[in-house]
Automatic annotation (TrEMBL):
Signal peptide: none annotated. The keyword Lyase does not apply. CDD domains: DUF820-like (cd06260). Residues 17-179 form the Putative restriction endonuclease domain. One of its GO terms (molecular function) is endonuclease activity. The keyword tRNA processing does not apply. Keywords: Endonuclease, Hydrolase, Nuclease. It holds the Pfam family Uma2. This is Uma2 family endonuclease. It comes from Sphingomonas adhaesiva. InterPro entries: Nuclease_put_TT1808, Restrct_endonuc-II-like, Uma2.
Length: 186
């Protein structure tokens, strides 16, 4: 190995703790960011259509979530999936321990991403991250096609089961008992 090869600049992978310290210090300002496999990702702005669908779906899930499940609906929580990955799904259904500042991945039951400009990465990178962390169910709201890609039964870095539900059809959660979401308002 030459000296030049040994001196080639490397890439520093942040941990979630590093990332949280940077955020607490104001490093990111008003930018919305996520930590994905040690890299800081700048998130797309939440345009009006994205925000409208996120809000409508949050309302629909909140109304449909059975109270006896012990689960809560969260909007854009930070979720620690591993030591170097902390995404912020648009919506999450989770067991909430109020002593935790960041939601541990083990408590996440359903992650939802609204994809108006991020469909490709939500169906590939994010799917791989959520499945790899064992998140039981994952929905991607495909705004352009007016469908929801529903995935469950994580296996490796993917989901073994999936179906597509058109806006206007009821969406029956595969892993959250009793959760049936009306999608007519989307």
């Amino acid at each position: 190995m030459t000296v030049q090869e040994r001196l080639r600049p490397g890439k520093y992978r942040l941990t979630v703790d590093d990332y949280l310290r940077l955020a607490a210090g104001g490093t990111f300002g008003d930018r919305r960011t996520e930590l994905i496999e040690g890299d800081i990702w700048i998130m797309s702005p939440a345009h009006t259509l994205h925000a409208r669908i996120q809000g409508a779906l949050a309302l629909a899930i909140g109304q449909a979530l059975p109270g006896e499940t012990g689960l809560s609906l969260l909007i854009a929580p930070s979720v620690r999936l591993s030591d170097d990955t902390m995404p912020e799904p648009d919506l999450a259904v989770a067991v909430v321990d109020h002593s935790e500042a960041v939601l541990p991945g083990r408590d996440l039951r359903l992650a939802v991403e609204v994809a108006d400009s991020t469909l490709a990465s939500d169906l590939s990178v994010k799917q791989s991250l959520y499945a790899g962390a064992g998140i039981p169910e994952y929905w991607v709201v495909d705004v352009a096609s007016a469908v929801i890609h529903q995935m469950w039964a994580p296996e490796g870095e993917g989901y073994r089961e999936r179906r597509t539900v058109a806006f206007g059809e009821p969406l029956v959660a595969a892993t959250v008992a009793g959760l049936v979401v009306e999608t007519t308002g989307l």
